[in-house]
Fold:
Amino acid sequence: MAAYEEFAKEQQAIDELLFKGYSIAGIQEDLDGAKVKFVRGEPAKSNVELVLLTADARKYVTTLVFANQKTVVL
Amino acid sequence: MADLSINLAGIKSPNPFWLASAPPTNTGYQVQRAFEAGWGGAVWKTLGDPIINTSSRFAAVHFNGQRVAGFNNIELITDRPLEVNLKEIYETKKRFPNHAVIASLMVEPTQKAWHEIVKRVEAIGVDGLELNFGCPHGMAERGMGAASGQQPDLVLAQTSWVKEVATTPVIVKLTPNITDITVVARHAVKGGADAISMINTINSLAGVDIHSWNTIPHVGGQGAHGGYCGPAVKPIALSMVAECARDLNVGVPISGIGGISTWQDVVEFMLMGATGIQVCTAVMHHGFRIVEEMIDGLNNYLDEKGLASVTELIGKSVSRYSNWGDLDLNYKVVARINEENCINCNKCHIACEDASHQCIDMLTNAEGKAILQVREEDCVGCNLCSIVCPADGAIDMVPLESGLAPMTWNERQKVISTLNGSYSEAEVV
Structure:
């Protein structure tokens, strides 16, 4: 699979969770990539962990958090 | 025509082109001919206790038809008595009062030795002093040159001793044979240096003769490490100039040295913080008259840029030189191949396949012609294809709008830390 396709797949998974009302609550990075914890309060409390392998997806997810934090600060 | 004159820590020169302390500045005859050719200043070949040189001193690294891509020497400081050099310095300065004549000095690291040479040299009228704490061979084994320059405390002490008696500006010349050149630069400044110059030569062995198994050069079958300079070292020198230029604790003018061969090189060094530059290898390769082209080229460049003085270049790119951690991770460029200029040599395809990210496809267009095409979504913008491409204008690196907010590595790590710090499992379970 081309690198972009791997990224696109992971990006889609991130976007789908966000669309479903999840927010990014934690990111743990290790030798195998990044484990991203998504949480949702409504309609039912739940959390989901997504393992991101590609560099672009790891960058993408933190960019979303970064942009969000910047917005909150502003 | 722009004003090319500079003032480096009080040393005035009609242009930024100085000869570095080296074989081309060994005698008054040479320096005066250099000034006649157009050089604005000269740092006299290092004065100190006269040495004895070996025969067979220089070597060069030629690369793919490019003569003298790098140059190596095991020659030491002056082998002539101080008084002889001083007489010629006096005569040179008398003939060229508006040119900068700087004396490079190297003595054993004692206060008495430094005081003695500084007083004797300044008595004949030089415009400044350059302390040679950089020469990596021969003198270093005697506790001088790079051996001094690799010890920040010795740099500070010796600079202080010189400043105790010097009446002209003191430039400290730094060795690149050290982990962090800014440490030594800061110590030179603490010692009172009015300016710093860099880089001296880099420890090197030019080569080994695969037929005789001798080193290159060799002295009767024996070799020793030398000092490397020439075009090959320019990126190293430029980086070290930049590191010192952006360090607020250095904060003194810089004389840039290292592989400067063209007026474009001069512009680069000045943009990166040098107030003036010094040249050696290019003169050893092509002679003093290369300065004519350098002066013309610089003049034309300044006119094109609408700049009235060469000093307007100094440091203009320093703020653009940063740390890796402060670069925008979301900035994206991709390669684009221009079919009309591509010669279908496939170098880009091979480079991308073997050494990068396999995103250049070999295709056939509608007319049945073989073409190369970049899959932009897979291109990481490494530049390798455009670097290896032999055809001008065949590959452009084009910035793309990523749609993502600019974010540096440092910002990213902070975001993750903040995010993880504020998260609690109790909130969601």
Observations:
- The longest strand of chain B covers residues 66-73.
- Chain B has a mean pLDDT of 95.
